[in-house]
Amino acid sequence: MQKSFLDIFNTILSTVREPLVVLDANLKVVDANPSFYKTFCVNPEETEGTLIYDLGNGQWNIPRLRELLEQALPETSVYNDFEVEHDFETIGPKIMHLNARKIYRESNHTQLILLAIEDVTESEYYKRNLEKIVETRTAELVLARQEAEKGKQTAETSLSEIKMLKEQLEAERAYLKEEIKLEHNHENIIGNSDALKYVLYKVEQIAQTNTTVLVLGETGTGKELVARAIHSFSKRKNKALVKVNCAVLPSNLIESELFGHEKGAFTGSSSKRLGRFEVADGATLFLDEIGELPLELQSKLLRVIQDGEFERLGSSNTIKVDARIIAATNRNLEEEVRQGRFRDDLWYRLNVFPITMPPLRDRIEDIPLLVEYYIKKIAKRMGKGTGIISSRVMNTIQNYHWPGNVRELENVLERAVINSSGPKLHLVDDLNKPFAYLRKNLKTLEAVERDYIVRMLDQTHWKVSGQNSAAQILGLNRSTLRARMRKLDIRKP
Ligand SMILES: Nc1ncnc2c1ncn2[C@@H]1O[C@H](COP(=O)(O)OP(=O)(O)OP(=O)(O)O)[C@@H](O)[C@H]1O
Ligand SMILES: [Mg+2]
Questions:
Q1: Which residue has the higher pLDDT, 303 or 437?
Q2: Residue 209 Cα, ligand 1 centroid: separation in angstroms?
Q3: How remote is the CA of residue 491 from the centroid of ligand 2, in Å?
């Protein structure tokens, strides 16, 4: 009975290409199709009636197959795609998908199990290989991306550092190129008077520190000379002394001059520019004519002095610098504070270590030394002999009150050397005739300055710049002279 059923079944099975095997309820092989025998290298004689696990010398005793037949299948009648991987002694490693189906035969209540075996070894190996390749490549890619990211970051940091250094160097170079054009007296500060010795003592005392210094004194007394001396005795001497003249520029330009600006910060700012504070990082910043600094900039300056912090115009990025400040003025800052023209908090900050340059008239014992020094220097420059200075001339020079101080002395001597053809030095300027203000009440420093500038302008027929101009005689930059004229309201009559 069972045989005739299997006969029909067999004819169907033999046409199916996939290996098929039929088991009875005790898991003994009832039948299998030709594909099964062929694929698994077993013959019908040793197969039929054998417990599946004993097949081919126990090669089919596979734990995963037991799992399907003994655990999964009793719970259900159909089980598809049950994956079994096994290394067969005869045919080597195989990956199979098993599709099991229970068949009930109602006539004698027997149950058969049809096991269809799909050999997926090759495709599975292929897939696994691909997966492995994808996995390795992904790991390589992640690593490469991380490395690239790291490299990019390092490159970006170095690039921005290089860019910053380049900018600072360029700004410093541009600044120094301007400075080279100006003539500085890099030699000694001439003088032997107690007043000057005291100044030099104070210079020595403070030079090595980072303390802010305020240099006070009349025009031409050597304030800039002292600022340069402090810098050249300091630890920062190998870097530039960066100077800003607060009297020369209009307030909107001073701001960008001091703090720099970003590209497009204001009309005409076509490129980014570093301010003097940035250029002076690690060096000394000389704020000349600090008394002329507009009030609105005084608070910004206070912040840099207090915290070393500022922002470039058109930027919200805070920049930190370490610049030693030396400020100078010929104004009476205390009076400026009283008049509300100078912030008192800035004044306190600047006035930590004041050095006052004595006027030349208060140290006439220095005059012979200065005369000798300047005559030699000027004569050498002009290719002339030094000549003799009579005691009468020296007396005249020492009795004069020198409102323009050493600068005026230098100019008087220069004119004298130009005009002296013989061995004796002849003064061109009439130093005996005192200025009108001497006879009257004492005047403010500003009035003295005004008178002196007017006198020089008169003498040069109001030639402000160029050869033999008032600016040249006064030893001033022409823009400085113009700024002073504006400030003191000096106009050509
Ligand atoms: N003691 C000195 N020895 C030699 N030269 C001096 C001395 N004092 C000043 N000078 C010279 O006098 C000129 C004016 O000096 P400086 O520019 O330092 O004066 P200042 O006080 O800054 O004047 P101003 O207030 O007008 O800016 C310079 O040429 C400087 O070299
Ligand atoms: Mg000066």
A1: 303
A2: 24
A3: 23
- Exposed e or buried b per residue across 281-298, where buried means at least 16 C-beta atoms within 10 angstroms of its C-beta: bebbbbbbbbbbbeeebb
Ligand 1-lining residues (CB < 6 angstroms): 185, 189-191, 217, 219-225, 330, 406-407, 410, 475
pTM to 2 decimals?
A: 0.61
The protein residues having their C-beta less than 5 angstroms from ligand 2 (an ion) are 224
- Closest residue to atom 24 of ligand 1, CA basis: 219
Protein residue with its CA nearest to atom 26 in ligand 1: 219
Using the structure block, give the residue that is written with the tokens 């004119």. Answer: 415
CA 427 to centroid of chain Cα atoms: 56
For 313-322, how does the pLDDT look when each residue is reduced to its tens digit (9 = 90+)? 999 999 999 9
What letter would DSSP give residue 365?
G
User: Pick from 254, 276, 255: which is nearest to 326 by CA?
Assistant: 276
The contacts of residue 423 (CB under 8 Å, 6+ apart) are: 385, 387, 388
User: 442 pLDDT exceeds 60?
Assistant: no
Which amino acid, residue 326?
Answer: I
Nearest CA-CA partner of 44 in 56, 57, 26, 32: 32
Question: How many Å apart are CA 24 and CA 49, to the nearest integer?
Answer: 9
Distance 275 CA to ligand 1 centre (A): 26
Q: What is the rounded CA–CA span in Å between residue 232 and residue 185?
A: 13
pLDDT > 90: percent of the chain: 45
User: Where are the extended beta strands (E) located within 129-276?
Assistant: 213-216, 241-245, 260-261, 273-274
Better-predicted residue by pLDDT, 298 or 182: 298
Is it the case that residue 206 has pLDDT exceeding 80? Answer: yes
For position 187, what pLDDT does the model report? 55
SS3 label, residue 325: strand
Name the pairing type of β-strands 284-288 and 324-329: parallel
- Output the residue whose Cα is nearest ligand 1's atom 23: 220
Q: Give pLDDT tens digits for 208-238.
A: 999 999 999 999 999 999 999 999 999 998 8
**245 CA to centre of ligand 2 in angstroms:** 8
Which tens digits make up the pLDDT trace of 175-191? 776 666 555 554 579 99
State both tokens at 205: 């005392």
- What residue's CA is closest to ligand 1, atom 18? 222
pLDDT at 437: 45
Secondary-structure percent of the chain, ordered helix, strand, coil, rounded to 5: 50, 15, 30
The amino acid sitting at 255 is E
What is the widest separation between alpha-carbon atoms in the chain? Answer: 159
360 pLDDT exceeds 80? yes
Q: 36 C-alpha to center of ligand 2: Å?
A: 110
The DSSP string of 382-395 is: HT----B--HHHHH
